[in-house]
Design a protein that fits this description.
about 15% strand; single chain; elongated
């Protein structure tokens, strides 16, 4: 089987490599041609335009788009609408919002082009371990392309989740859960660090301990251990935590359906807080305590 891969960045390139390793031929296309050249040097094929990509794929063609959600993905998908033929299939493997999938699937269907949404998890470790893949869209196309999903994923690591949008919806919730788990680990280690028992305790070894038979064992905890091995107290980084769209969308979903999700919501709020040194919110709190109770406050610039 041969597919096109648009976007040869950190995820897309390794996904292409894993697919090739498992017997799928890949035609790569990237905005910067050096990535396309690199894939060709590694045994893949390269295209330098959408038309050239189409020419190198046999009908019915399959093109996987692996680009950041938003403008980049929109531009690629609309270009494919103008390029591909009826009967071809497009897979959006980025972190798009599931509501965008519903709209896009209708637009592609009007042209006779199939559209699948694939939520992909695996990050920089996916090439070695495999990519957990959650797929939404026409079941018939999922069945036809199942060898691709199987080659990309670890054993039992892919699933058909339902109609258009289902793949990215499930991936969105997956990432929301991820926020909550990460926050729990962060708070747990912070409690130890701030206690009398934190000094001298080896957090890398503790992470390994908790990953042997403990109910809180996980791959995230393995990664925490790796980070502590690199720098015992993480003094080489600042505690500023960005967020991508999925965490916000998960909280929005909770609001829309009236589903209580306090842990996931608070985890997102903590990421916001991490980016606000000397937060105005906290200055208001300090001022209020001073005004109603005469409590001492620190002046600006005071250590």
């Amino acid at each position: 089987m041969r597919i096109g891969m648009i976007g040869l960045g950190r995820m897309g390139m390794n996904m292409a490599r894993r697919l090739m390793k498992n017997g799928t031929e890949v035609v790569g296309f990237n905005r910067s041609v050096d990535k396309t050249d690199q894939l060709k040097a590694e045994g893949g094929m390269g295209a330098y335009s959408y038309e050239e990509l189409k020419e190198q794929l046999d009908a019915p063609r399959t093109v996987w788009v692996m680009l950041p959600a938003g403008k980049a993905t929109d531009l690629a998908l609309y270009s494919l609408m103008e390029t591909l033929d009826s009967g071809d299939t497009v897979i959006d493997g980025g972190n798009s919002h599931y509501k965008d999938d519903i709209r896009r699937s209708e637009e592609f269907n009007e042209l006779g082009i199939n559209y699948l949404d694939a939520g992909v998890s695996g990050g920089i470790w996916g090439l070695e371990i495999g990519y957990c893949t959650m797929v939404g869209g026409p079941k018939k196309e999922f069945n036809r392309l199942e060898p691709v999903f199987k080659g990309l994923a670890p054993e039992n690591g892919y699933m058909y989740c339902g109609n258009s949008g289902a793949g990215h919806f499930v991936k969105m919730i997956h990432n929301g859960i991820e926020y909550g788990m990460m926050q729990a680990y962060a708070e747990g280690f912070a409690l130890i660090e701030d206690s009398n028992y934190g000094e001298g305790l080896d957090y890398a070894e503790l992470s390994k301990l908790w990953n042997n038979g403990s109910v809180i064992r996980s791959w995230l905890l393995e990664l925490a251990g790796d980070a502590f091995e690199k720098n015992e107290r993480l003094t080489d980084i600042e505690g500023v935590v960005d967020d991508s769209g999925e965490g916000r969308w998960t909280v929005q979903q909770a609001i829309e359906t009236g589903t209580p999700a306090p842990v996931l919501t608070q985890a997102l709020m903590e990421r916001f807080a991490s980016r606000r040194p000397n937060d105005f919110r906290n200055r208001v709190l300090a001022a209020l305590r001073r005004e109603f109770g005469g409590h001492a406050v620190k002046s600006a610039g005071e250590k």
